[in-house]
Amino acid sequence: MNAGDITLADLGVGESAEVRAVGGDRGVARRLMEMGVLPGTLVRVVRVAPLGDPVEIRLRRYGLSIRRAEAAAIVVTRSAESGPLPSTAGAR
Amino acid sequence: MSGPVRVPLVLLAGNPNSGKTTLFNALTGARARTGNYPGVTVERRVGTLSVGGRPVDLVDLPGTYSLSARSEEERVAAQAILPSSGPGPDAVVVVCDATALERHLYLAEQIRETGVPVVVALNMMDEAEAEGLQLEVAALASAFGAPMVPVVARRGRGTTELLEALARVLEEEPKAVVPLPLDAAVAADVEEVALSVDAAWPAGGVSEARRPAVRWARALWTLLSVGDDELRDVPAAVRDTVEAVQRRATSQGRALDQAIIMARYERLDAITGAFVRVESPRSGPSTTERIDRVLTHPAAGSLAFVLVMGTLFQALFSWSEPLVAVIEAAVGGVQGLVRWALPDGPLQDLLTDGVVAGVGNVIVFVPQIAMLSLFIALLEDSGYLARVAFVIDRVMRGVGLHGRAFVPLLSGFACAVPAVLATRTIENRKDRLVTMLALPLMSCSARLPVYTLVIGVAFPSGQSLPGGLSVGAGALLLMYAISVAATLGAAGVLRRTVLPGPRPALVLELPPYRWPLVRNLALATWERTRTFVTDAGTLILAITIVLWAMLTYPKDAATEARYETLRAQADATLAGEPLQVEHARLDAEQAAARMEHSLGGRVGRAIEPVVAPLGFDWKIGVGLVASFAAREVLVSTLAVVYGVGADQDEESDSLRSRLRTARRADGRRLFTPLVGLSLMVFFVLAAQCMSTLAIVRRESGGWRWPLVMLVYMNVLAYVASLLVYQGGLLLGFE
Ligand SMILES: Nc1nc2c(ncn2[C@@H]2O[C@H](COP(=O)(O)OP(=O)(O)OP(=O)(O)O)[C@@H](O)[C@H]2O)c(=O)[nH]1
Ligand SMILES: [Mg+2]
Question: What's the predicted TM-score (pTM) here?
Answer without folding.
Answer: 0.84
